[in-house]
Amino acid sequence: MVSERPEGVLRITPTCRIALGELEWRTTRSGGPGGQHANTSDTRVEVRFDVASSPSLGPRQRARLLDRVGPVVRASASDTRSQARNRELALDRLRDRLADGLRVRPARRPTAPSVAARQRRLNAKRRQSARKRERRTPRRDGEE
Fold first, then answer.
1. Using alpha carbons only, what angle is made at residue 112 by residues 107 and 117, rounded to the nearest 5 degrees?
2. Which strands, in side-by-side order, build the sheet including 44-50?
3. Within its chain, how far is the Cα of 38 from the centroid?
């Protein structure tokens, strides 16, 4: 969770850390019912991170994030009535989004079907053909 992080730094991956000063925070009033308390407190939290101008990212990390998530990453939370808890939730969501964008996906190596798989496919085609052949109306002698 976010509470395990050192003060002032958000750890995304073991090699990527972002200073909390780079994040832009915005609070607004949450929607939905809640009585008089909901009308006076700004509990919805939105956090923004500018990928394009961040000094914390290396060139490859920046390029990967720009390609996958865009120049600005946003996360918001309005799950609870506490602004502090919503800040933690929004920070967790931002970290998850950035970590997913930085994840290196393994290259897919195309494979050929095995001999047994080819044989199963041909046997299934033969069974289907025989099944359809049996459904046909029988021909009379002399007809084509």
1. 130
2. 23-28, 44-50, 72-77
3. 31
89-136 pLDDT, tens digit per residue, is 999 999 999 999 999 989 999 899 999 999 999 999 999 999 999 999
The pTM of the whole model exceeds 0.70:
no
**Residue linked to tokens 């502090």:** 84
Query: What's the CA dihedral at 12, 46, 24, 67 to 10 degrees?
Result: 50
Residue 58 Rama label (left phi>0; alpha psi -120 to 50; beta): beta
d(CA 94, CA 89): 9
CB atoms within 10 A of CB 87: 17
3-state secondary structure the chain: CHHHCCCCEEEEECCEEEEHHHEEEEEECCCCCCHHHHCCCCCEEEEEEECCCCCCCCHHHHHHHHHHCCCEEEEEECCCCCHHHHHHHHHHHHHHHHHHHHCCCCCCCCCCCCHHHHHHHHHHHHHHHHHHHHHCCCCCCCCC
